[in-house]
Amino acid sequence: MWFKNLYFFAFTRPFEWSEQDLEKHLSEHLFTPLGSTEVSHFGWVNALGKHGDTSVHGANGNFLICARKEEKMLPASVIKDMVEEKVNLLEQEQGRGATKKEKEQFKEDITFELLPRAFSRITDTHAYISPVNNIIVINSSSRGKAEDLLALLRKVLGTLPVSSLEPDVCADETMTDWLNEKSLGGKFTLGMEAEFNALGDDGAVIRVKNQDLLSEEIKSHLDADKYVVKVALEWDETLSFILCDDLAIKRVKFFDVIHEQNDDIDSDDIVAKLDADFALMAGELNRFITELLAEFSMKTTDLLEKD
User: Of 53, 85, 200, 227, whose CB count within 10 A is highest?
Assistant: First the structure.
């Protein structure tokens, strides 16, 4: 339930679907397991997993959803070797090379033959929509998977006007200024981990851990025209994280003081615990994202189309 990696996107038009509307749309595109000769399926599952029975779980105006993808694992090297065997056999039997069309047919036949015996990989990706804050937040370490979820949601809703938020000043410049000028906002504090790049495509990459980021050693890297592309931060005595220069948030860790707020909920009431955890997490993340964007002089409503 507790998100660990974040990609967030802002709506360019207000999100106007109610919880009931969203449930109706998602329930028409539910996940179904793969058949023996199918390659992949992508659809919606219960937002609270086996403990829930709806595709959307609402709490304090936030809507939790979950997309599941199942894929058959077929190693490309195995298929390539088997295609080459068929090509070689054709050359021996007919004294000619295989055409492009024949090679494609060999690959298709081999894939179809192997699919029933292939292992499946199942991946669940959670996200929540906050209409009031004008954002969708996706729990994924991969931008590609985050955009896959957006594409699926766009498919079921017919439209999904969202975009990444991009500051006027490049994020890496602002992050570098935090170390050079000690200009980081009051609720944020520097951690002890960072990554620096030098200018140029072939520039040096420096990674430091367990290092005071305001030390003379770090200053020497900055003076050598290296800039920050990842930096460890803490926020409001609530969570720690790694901020990337595309505003992706990695390795989110909520502090014990946050988790302990729901300790009084009966542990046997799993649904109530999940609901409370989601409400608490979403509330903190909404506040966190708002204040993080303020460090880059942005708001979650910046992309809303003006009448």
Answer: 227
